[in-house]
Each structure stands twice: as structure tokens, then as C-alpha cells.
Amino acid sequence: MWTVVALMCLEKLAGVIGNAGTAARSAATASPQGRRPSVDDDPAVQIRSSAGADDEAAPLIGVEGLEPPKWASVDAQVAAASVWRTVRSLPAAAGVVVRLAWATSRRLTVLAGLVHVASGCATAFGLSPP
Known about the structure:
There is one protein chain. This protein is mainly α. It folds into two domains: 65 residues, no CATH class; 54 residues, no CATH class. The longest helix has 27 residues. The chain is elongated, with a radius of gyration of 29 Å.
């Protein structure tokens, strides 16, 4: 994944540097009609704009057959989750955590629960230090 990100950054940087050089060259030379050349006169910009309005950047070389791994589909589900879906999943997540802790050490799980309840009571009654 980092390789793809690095390639995308290098491609973007090359495009910025290439555009700056061609823009400087075109600004230095005046057109025969007496008008200043615009960015639209640059052939590289014309090629990019002919790709279509919905295409932001040219595709990377050598990544045509790549697709995200199956385990990464969870990322898309998490990113698309609403607040209420997240809140509804909290009891199930807490249940998983408590079951894992209980299976690991029952005594420490009970101790952690009691300390948490005691801390809540101390906070509610103002017995905790400032």
C-alpha cells in the first residue's frame, strides 16, 4: 500500500514540476498575435483535460490489475458507518471485550469492574481528589 501512495505522490510532484516549467517557458515567449499565452496552450494540459472531467489524475503505470485485499473491505464499512450504527454496535463490542477478559482472568476482570464502579461512585459523591 505504501508503494502505491509513494508512486501517487511522485506522479503528482512530477506533474507540478512539469507544469511549472512549461508555464515559465510559455510565459517567456510571446505569441505572434500579441496576446499572452495561457495555460490552455500547453499540450500537457490539453492532454489531461481531454481525459474527462471526472478523471482527476492519470492512472498509475502497472496498477491496472490491482484491487484492495479482501480484509480491507472492513475499512470501507467502518468509513461508511453512521453515528447510530456505531452506537448500536457498542453493546456487542463491549460483550466481546468482557468475554475475552473473563476467559483470560476472571479474578482480574471482577477486580477491574469493582474498581471502575468504585471510581464512578467516588466521582459522583465528590470523594475524588481535585
